[in-house]
Amino acid sequence: MARLRPFGPYELAERVGVGSLGEVFRAFSRSGGQVVALKRLSFNASHDREVIETLREEAQISRSLDHPAITKVTDIGQVDDIHYIAYEYVHGRDLRALGERAAKQGGELPIDVALHVILRVCEALAHAHGRCSAAGSPLGMVHRDVSPPNIMISVDGEVKLLDFGIAWAEGRSARTGEGQVKGTMGYMSPEQAAGGKLDARSDIYSLGVCLWELAAG
User: Fold this and answer.
1) What is the pTM for the complete model shown?
2) Catalytic residue among 145, 163, 199, 203
3) Has residue 73 got a pLDDT over 80?
4) Residue 5 confidence (pLDDT) above 80
5) In what order do the strands lie in the sheet with 10-18?
6) What gap in Å lies between CA 179 and CA 181, rounded to an integer?
7) Is residue 66 annotated as part of the catalytic site, yes or no?
8) What is the pLDDT at residue 80?
């Protein structure tokens, strides 16, 4: 078992992901022992006002969503000027890892499994795309990074859509709007790759690419 390291109200276990802005750890809450996926920004990112605001917006968007196929935010805060966000922990593998494992064994995921995963993500996206403001107007939410690393399958067969960190919705700051290309290039719709205005159809295109990969191997 990995040696636990204290981090504010959490104990950090092993690192499960790393990116340009920080790291993701499997962690335990000191108060109740809850297991979480804790995204901790790097020192430099924690002193970048734009990155911090994006993290806060990620938490705000994620907390506005309530669907069993979307990971839930459990906490957001900072420890010694290092900002973090905590999500429910999904014990399993992402879709890319499962696809690569199947390929190494000389095949692909069974089509019924692939369809189950895609259908669950469809339901998650339908929930996000249909969200409205308190006044009842559509938020026009777009995930913008529907790709295999952001689709988790738990050991119990649950499917979870991760990472609304670059999601766009009406009312968000202009830095994440039209004209900026963010996401995973191989899964972007043409409109997204060109920095154009996006709507829900862009996410559906990206999920279609995921389905094509699963079906074609």
Assistant:
1) 0.84
2) 145
3) yes
4) yes
5) 5-7, 10-18, 22-29, 35-41, 82-88, 73-79
6) 7
7) no
8) 92
